[in-house]
Amino acid sequence: MECFRIDESGYTGFDLLNPEQRFQGAAAIAIDDDQARRLIREHFPKLQADELKYRALARRPANHPRLLALLRDLLTQHKCVTYVCDKRFLLLLMFLDYAVEPFYYERGIDFYEDGQNYSLASLLYVTGPTLLGESALDRLLACFQRAVKEKSPEALADLVEAARASRWRELPEALGPLAQFAAPECLQAIATPGVTTDAALVVLQSLISRMEAMADGPYWVEHDQSKNLLTYHDLLQRFIHHEDAITFRQSEIASITFPLKLQSVTQVDSKTSPAVQLADVMIGAAIEAASTLTGQRDGTLDAQRVLALYADHQLIHMLPSIDFEEQKRFRQGTQAAQTIDYFAQNFHKP
User: Number of structural domains, the chain?
Assistant: First the structure.
């Protein structure tokens, strides 16, 4: 049975505003340990470390051509996918999901139609600091994140106050429900048990949609024993055991169907799994490239050369875009509302 090895990077739990880790992602690759071991020996014959780690290898300029060559071989010879998201943008999408959408739902409006939530989140991301006030958007998102985590009356009141303290009338479509109405349906959605700003579910949902498309039949997943991946492990188990027959269209190129082809998930020590180590290299290079291209920090590898190695179907990203016509075309007919409701009912912890 085919096996995909996965690894993650940038996981910060509920905190999506961590300035040192702006991006979160994961990579999956269908490769066995013997193949992985052969590739590592081919590209790094003098490796002395117990484990292949992207961050350690990338520090030495002499390793850069070898890393690029290794990535090229992985992307051209094996089934694989990498997912990267801007966590601030994802938090804005979550804000719209819980602090805005319920207001429109109560009034019979499909807030997600043709991906308009993505367009509004992108608009907030790009223009929010100017429209709402230089620090108002930061305060709003920090209060939202805290309110989702604590679910206390005090935290919810602080969130409403943060919305009202901003120049919310510049974008009432997004902030009006809280600032003007303190919409009880929105506050109730935020306070619902199980609702969280942890991005693990979003990351896994995207990875699984591609693994399901790439797998020829039943397959299994293997990942590292790291603390961060425990959340992923639990979610994967719940996905596996979900037996309802249902399909959701997520975008022009993505859908997810239950029951999954995924049969099982196991944890291993990455030091004993060359295949998991290669997943670490893939996600490490992608996260670094994203950080370089957005000016967060200077990367070690040439980001443009890294991204040029990917075919379109091998790289999924959740990044803001103000090409609103393209957003609408790409997400036309999406079942976002149904997907969010279904996943909230079936996969969020109570």
Answer: 2
